[in-house]
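Before going further, learn to read the protein records used in this course. Taken together, the tokens spell out the fold as the letters spell out the chain. A record is reproduced here so that you can trace the correspondence yourselves:

***
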Amino acid sequence: MADKVVLLDTWASMFGMRVRIALAEKGVEYEYKEENLIRNKSPLLLQMNPVHKKIPVLIHNGKPICESGIIVQYIDEVWKGKAPILPSDPYERAQARLWVDYIDKKVYHASKRVWTTDGDKKEVAKKEFFESLKQLEEVLGDKPYFGGDTFGFVDVALIPFYCWFYTYETFGGFKVEAECPKLISWAKRCMQKESVSKTLADEKEVYESVLDYKKKFVLS
């Protein structure tokens, strides 16, 4: 019996994009279900992720896997036929997990505050955002990808932020390339991969959706 794979997601989620890139890298066919997290979370989402009630959720043969980093690792372990996403070396694998955790805790939270706050809070967020990106530039070094010569776990985790850069830049009044040119070169390299270019949302559409969100909800 063929695997039945369903992905609960929203189109602009950088966390959902991670999963879609990983599925594309592995050539996995799946059913995509768009979730409305603001107004009407589906009964299926609430059933499959009752603890956090958020996307993405990968449902594999009826069993849910939650949290994007965990899902990508699961995909890598289950569908071994294509090139691995995580390194085979235990130390390198641990380091990749460390930097994905860093992205989730540092890059994401700082970047979100760039467009959700104003005044001094925004200035602090911008400073933290660029500090986190420059730290990642150091990790990247002169390698083509964070995984070395191959596109890997850290690349999958970070590249979805690229389509949000326009939003951060517009609200923050800066250009990422001016501060982190090496990271932009890396992003453009990643965009040459079909799994990435066909997955990432249009940056202007992301911005418009954020504007619409801000009009409807009071953000702190």
